[in-house]
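User: I need a structural model of SapC family protein from Spongiibacter nanhainus for a docking pre-check later this week. Nothing fancy, just the predicted C-alpha coordinates so I can convert them on my end. Input:
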Amino acid sequence: MPQLKAVSASEHRRFSWMPFSHYKFAKGDQFIPLLVNEFKLASTMAPIAFIKKGEGYQPILIAGLESKRNLLVSSEGYWLGGYVPSHYRSHPFCIGKNQDGKELLCFHSDSEFVHDRIIPGESKPFIQGEGLSTDLQEIYDFLKSCQIGSQNSDSFCSRCKELDLFMPWSPEIKLNGKSKRFTGFYCINESKLKNLPDTDAKSMLETGALGAIYYHLASLPLTTSLETLYYRQAKASESKDSGIEYEDVFTGFADDDSINLEW
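Assistant: Understood. Predicted C-alpha coordinates for SapC family protein:
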Protein backbone atom coordinates (compact mmCIF):
# COMPACT_ATOMS: atom_id res chain seq x y z
CA MET A 1 0.00 0.00 0.00
CA PRO A 2 1.30 3.51 -0.81
CA GLN A 3 2.38 5.62 2.14
CA LEU A 4 0.25 8.78 1.97
CA LYS A 5 1.03 11.95 3.91
CA ALA A 6 -0.81 15.25 3.92
CA VAL A 7 1.18 18.19 2.58
CA SER A 8 2.07 20.55 5.41
CA ALA A 9 3.65 23.99 4.98
CA SER A 10 5.53 23.58 8.26
CA GLU A 11 6.66 19.97 7.87
CA HIS A 12 7.42 19.89 4.15
CA ARG A 13 8.91 23.30 3.47
CA ARG A 14 12.08 21.74 2.12
CA PHE A 15 10.34 18.92 0.25
CA SER A 16 10.24 18.78 -3.53
CA TRP A 17 9.28 16.45 -6.36
CA MET A 18 10.14 15.71 -9.95
CA PRO A 19 7.53 15.08 -12.64
CA PHE A 20 7.33 11.31 -13.07
CA SER A 21 9.41 9.97 -15.93
CA HIS A 22 7.88 6.49 -16.17
CA TYR A 23 4.76 4.57 -15.17
CA LYS A 24 6.31 1.77 -13.17
CA PHE A 25 4.21 2.95 -10.22
CA ALA A 26 1.14 1.80 -12.19
CA LYS A 27 2.40 -1.65 -13.21
CA GLY A 28 0.32 -3.44 -10.57
CA ASP A 29 -3.01 -1.82 -11.48
CA GLN A 30 -5.17 -4.36 -13.27
CA PHE A 31 -8.09 -1.90 -13.10
CA ILE A 32 -7.93 1.89 -13.36
CA PRO A 33 -10.61 4.22 -11.95
CA LEU A 34 -12.11 6.22 -14.80
CA LEU A 35 -14.27 9.33 -15.10
CA VAL A 36 -17.27 9.23 -17.41
CA ASN A 37 -15.92 12.27 -19.27
CA GLU A 38 -12.86 10.19 -20.18
CA PHE A 39 -14.85 7.47 -21.93
CA LYS A 40 -14.33 8.92 -25.42
CA LEU A 41 -10.54 8.89 -25.24
CA ALA A 42 -10.17 5.74 -23.15
CA SER A 43 -12.58 3.68 -25.25
CA THR A 44 -9.99 3.03 -27.95
CA MET A 45 -7.49 1.35 -25.60
CA ALA A 46 -9.23 -1.20 -23.41
CA PRO A 47 -12.66 -2.24 -22.13
CA ILE A 48 -14.56 0.24 -19.98
CA ALA A 49 -16.68 -1.60 -17.42
CA PHE A 50 -18.38 -0.92 -14.09
CA ILE A 51 -17.89 -2.39 -10.63
CA LYS A 52 -20.04 -2.18 -7.52
CA LYS A 53 -19.22 0.76 -5.22
CA GLY A 54 -21.30 0.59 -2.07
CA GLU A 55 -24.91 0.78 -3.22
CA GLY A 56 -23.88 2.20 -6.59
CA TYR A 57 -21.43 1.65 -9.43
CA GLN A 58 -18.04 2.99 -10.52
CA PRO A 59 -16.54 3.04 -14.03
CA ILE A 60 -13.12 1.47 -14.52
CA LEU A 61 -10.73 0.75 -17.36
CA ILE A 62 -9.70 -2.91 -17.49
CA ALA A 63 -5.95 -2.70 -18.03
CA GLY A 64 -4.92 -6.29 -17.38
CA LEU A 65 -5.95 -9.91 -17.65
CA GLU A 66 -4.21 -11.05 -14.48
CA SER A 67 -4.18 -9.81 -10.91
CA LYS A 68 -1.73 -6.97 -10.19
CA ARG A 69 -0.60 -6.62 -13.79
CA ASN A 70 -1.19 -3.58 -15.99
CA LEU A 71 -0.67 -4.47 -19.64
CA LEU A 72 -0.79 -0.80 -20.64
CA VAL A 73 2.62 -0.34 -18.97
CA SER A 74 5.66 -1.93 -20.58
CA SER A 75 8.37 -3.67 -18.58
CA GLU A 76 10.46 -0.50 -18.96
CA GLY A 77 7.66 1.64 -17.58
CA TYR A 78 6.44 3.17 -20.86
CA TRP A 79 2.74 3.93 -21.24
CA LEU A 80 1.48 1.94 -24.21
CA GLY A 81 -1.99 3.43 -24.58
CA GLY A 82 -2.70 6.67 -26.42
CA TYR A 83 -4.58 8.29 -23.53
CA VAL A 84 -3.37 8.57 -19.93
CA PRO A 85 -6.29 8.41 -17.43
CA SER A 86 -6.58 11.32 -15.01
CA HIS A 87 -6.03 8.86 -12.15
CA TYR A 88 -2.31 8.87 -12.98
CA ARG A 89 -1.66 12.43 -14.12
CA SER A 90 -1.13 13.99 -10.72
CA HIS A 91 1.27 11.33 -9.41
CA PRO A 92 2.75 11.41 -6.77
CA PHE A 93 -0.09 13.59 -5.41
CA CYS A 94 -3.73 12.81 -4.66
CA ILE A 95 -6.58 14.06 -2.48
CA GLY A 96 -7.22 12.16 0.72
CA LYS A 97 -9.35 12.61 3.84
CA ASN A 98 -8.46 12.77 7.51
CA GLN A 99 -10.41 11.12 10.31
CA ASP A 100 -12.87 14.01 10.37
CA GLY A 101 -13.59 13.64 6.65
CA LYS A 102 -11.72 16.82 5.72
CA GLU A 103 -10.12 16.68 2.28
CA LEU A 104 -6.36 17.13 2.18
CA LEU A 105 -3.72 17.32 -0.52
CA CYS A 106 -1.56 14.24 0.02
CA PHE A 107 1.56 12.73 -1.53
CA HIS A 108 3.08 9.29 -1.82
CA SER A 109 5.93 9.62 0.64
CA ASP A 110 7.55 6.42 -0.65
CA SER A 111 7.63 7.64 -4.27
CA GLU A 112 11.02 7.85 -5.95
CA PHE A 113 9.92 11.20 -7.38
CA VAL A 114 9.61 12.83 -3.93
CA HIS A 115 12.66 14.34 -2.20
CA ASP A 116 13.21 15.69 1.30
CA ARG A 117 15.32 18.48 -0.14
CA ILE A 118 15.19 20.84 -3.09
CA ILE A 119 17.46 19.90 -5.98
CA PRO A 120 18.36 23.17 -7.77
CA GLY A 121 17.38 23.18 -11.42
CA GLU A 122 15.72 19.76 -11.22
CA SER A 123 13.01 19.40 -8.59
CA LYS A 124 9.96 21.52 -7.82
CA PRO A 125 9.29 22.74 -4.28
CA PHE A 126 6.17 21.81 -2.35
CA ILE A 127 5.95 25.14 -0.57
CA GLN A 128 6.56 28.77 -1.49
CA GLY A 129 6.07 31.43 1.15
CA GLU A 130 3.25 30.31 3.45
CA GLY A 131 1.39 28.18 0.91
CA LEU A 132 1.67 25.76 -1.96
CA SER A 133 4.14 26.49 -4.73
CA THR A 134 2.71 27.58 -8.08
CA ASP A 135 3.42 24.16 -9.61
CA LEU A 136 1.84 22.24 -6.75
CA GLN A 137 -1.18 24.56 -6.73
CA GLU A 138 -1.74 23.66 -10.40
CA ILE A 139 -1.74 19.97 -9.49
CA TYR A 140 -4.14 20.63 -6.63
CA ASP A 141 -6.46 22.53 -9.00
CA PHE A 142 -6.31 19.60 -11.41
CA LEU A 143 -7.25 17.19 -8.64
CA LYS A 144 -10.18 19.41 -7.67
CA SER A 145 -11.37 19.40 -11.28
CA CYS A 146 -11.18 15.61 -11.25
CA GLN A 147 -13.42 15.62 -8.18
CA ILE A 148 -16.03 17.47 -10.22
CA GLY A 149 -15.62 14.77 -12.88
CA SER A 150 -16.06 12.14 -10.17
CA GLN A 151 -19.31 13.74 -9.05
CA ASN A 152 -20.49 13.72 -12.68
CA SER A 153 -19.58 10.03 -12.88
CA ASP A 154 -21.55 9.28 -9.71
CA SER A 155 -24.57 11.11 -11.15
CA PHE A 156 -24.23 9.20 -14.42
CA CYS A 157 -24.09 5.84 -12.64
CA SER A 158 -26.97 6.77 -10.35
CA ARG A 159 -29.11 7.63 -13.35
CA CYS A 160 -28.23 4.38 -15.12
CA LYS A 161 -29.06 2.43 -11.95
CA GLU A 162 -32.35 4.31 -11.62
CA LEU A 163 -33.24 3.25 -15.18
CA ASP A 164 -32.16 -0.34 -14.40
CA LEU A 165 -29.59 -0.33 -17.20
CA PHE A 166 -26.78 -2.26 -15.51
CA MET A 167 -26.31 -5.96 -16.12
CA PRO A 168 -23.51 -8.43 -15.20
CA TRP A 169 -20.72 -8.68 -17.78
CA SER A 170 -18.46 -11.73 -17.73
CA PRO A 171 -16.17 -11.80 -20.77
CA GLU A 172 -14.21 -14.95 -21.52
CA ILE A 173 -10.59 -14.83 -22.69
CA LYS A 174 -7.95 -17.41 -23.48
CA LEU A 175 -4.51 -17.25 -21.94
CA ASN A 176 -1.92 -19.84 -22.86
CA GLY A 177 -4.61 -22.10 -24.25
CA LYS A 178 -6.80 -21.97 -21.14
CA SER A 179 -10.16 -20.22 -20.93
CA LYS A 180 -10.62 -17.63 -18.21
CA ARG A 181 -13.82 -15.79 -17.35
CA PHE A 182 -13.98 -12.41 -15.64
CA THR A 183 -16.58 -11.91 -12.94
CA GLY A 184 -17.72 -8.96 -10.86
CA PHE A 185 -18.10 -6.56 -13.78
CA TYR A 186 -21.16 -4.81 -15.14
CA CYS A 187 -22.06 -3.19 -18.43
CA ILE A 188 -25.03 -1.31 -19.84
CA ASN A 189 -27.87 -3.51 -21.08
CA GLU A 190 -28.21 -2.40 -24.70
CA SER A 191 -31.65 -3.96 -25.12
CA LYS A 192 -33.04 -1.99 -22.19
CA LEU A 193 -31.30 1.11 -23.48
CA LYS A 194 -33.05 0.80 -26.84
CA ASN A 195 -36.41 0.45 -25.11
CA LEU A 196 -36.14 3.48 -22.84
CA PRO A 197 -39.18 5.75 -22.81
CA ASP A 198 -38.73 8.74 -25.13
CA THR A 199 -38.52 11.23 -22.25
CA ASP A 200 -35.70 9.27 -20.55
CA ALA A 201 -33.81 8.74 -23.81
CA LYS A 202 -34.09 12.46 -24.63
CA SER A 203 -32.78 13.38 -21.19
CA MET A 204 -29.82 11.00 -21.54
CA LEU A 205 -29.07 12.42 -24.97
CA GLU A 206 -29.18 16.05 -23.82
CA THR A 207 -26.83 15.48 -20.87
CA GLY A 208 -24.31 13.56 -22.98
CA ALA A 209 -24.86 10.37 -20.99
CA LEU A 210 -26.08 8.50 -24.05
CA GLY A 211 -22.87 9.25 -25.93
CA ALA A 212 -20.81 8.05 -22.95
CA ILE A 213 -22.78 4.81 -22.89
CA TYR A 214 -22.03 4.07 -26.53
CA TYR A 215 -18.31 4.73 -26.03
CA HIS A 216 -18.51 2.22 -23.15
CA LEU A 217 -20.32 -0.35 -25.28
CA ALA A 218 -17.92 0.12 -28.20
CA SER A 219 -14.96 -0.58 -25.90
CA LEU A 220 -16.15 -3.96 -24.62
CA PRO A 221 -14.66 -6.07 -27.46
CA LEU A 222 -11.19 -4.65 -26.70
CA THR A 223 -10.32 -7.59 -24.50
CA THR A 224 -8.72 -8.75 -27.76
CA SER A 225 -6.31 -5.79 -27.61
CA LEU A 226 -5.32 -6.81 -24.09
CA GLU A 227 -4.76 -10.38 -25.25
CA THR A 228 -2.50 -9.04 -28.02
CA LEU A 229 -0.51 -7.02 -25.48
CA TYR A 230 -0.27 -10.02 -23.18
CA TYR A 231 1.31 -12.24 -25.83
CA ARG A 232 3.57 -9.52 -27.21
CA GLN A 233 4.91 -8.75 -23.76
CA ALA A 234 5.43 -12.44 -23.10
CA LYS A 235 7.34 -12.72 -26.37
CA ALA A 236 9.41 -9.64 -25.54
CA SER A 237 10.22 -11.05 -22.12
CA GLU A 238 11.39 -14.34 -23.60
CA SER A 239 13.57 -12.67 -26.20
CA LYS A 240 14.52 -9.73 -23.95
CA ASP A 241 13.53 -7.51 -26.85
CA SER A 242 12.72 -4.03 -25.50
CA GLY A 243 12.14 -2.71 -29.02
CA ILE A 244 8.92 -4.62 -29.67
CA GLU A 245 6.29 -2.59 -31.54
CA TYR A 246 2.95 -1.79 -29.86
CA GLU A 247 1.66 1.12 -31.94
CA ASP A 248 -0.69 -0.93 -34.10
CA VAL A 249 -2.51 -2.35 -31.07
CA PHE A 250 -4.32 0.93 -30.50
CA THR A 251 -6.10 3.23 -32.91
CA GLY A 252 -8.11 6.42 -32.63
CA PHE A 253 -7.70 9.31 -30.24
CA ALA A 254 -4.41 10.67 -28.99
CA ASP A 255 -3.84 12.08 -25.53
CA ASP A 256 -4.48 15.82 -25.65
CA ASP A 257 -3.78 16.25 -21.90
CA SER A 258 -7.22 17.73 -21.27
CA ILE A 259 -10.39 16.67 -19.53
CA ASN A 260 -13.71 17.97 -20.80
CA LEU A 261 -16.01 18.32 -17.82
CA GLU A 262 -18.99 19.18 -20.03
CA TRP A 263 -20.20 15.65 -20.61
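Before docking, keep this in mind: The first helix runs from residue 39 to 42.
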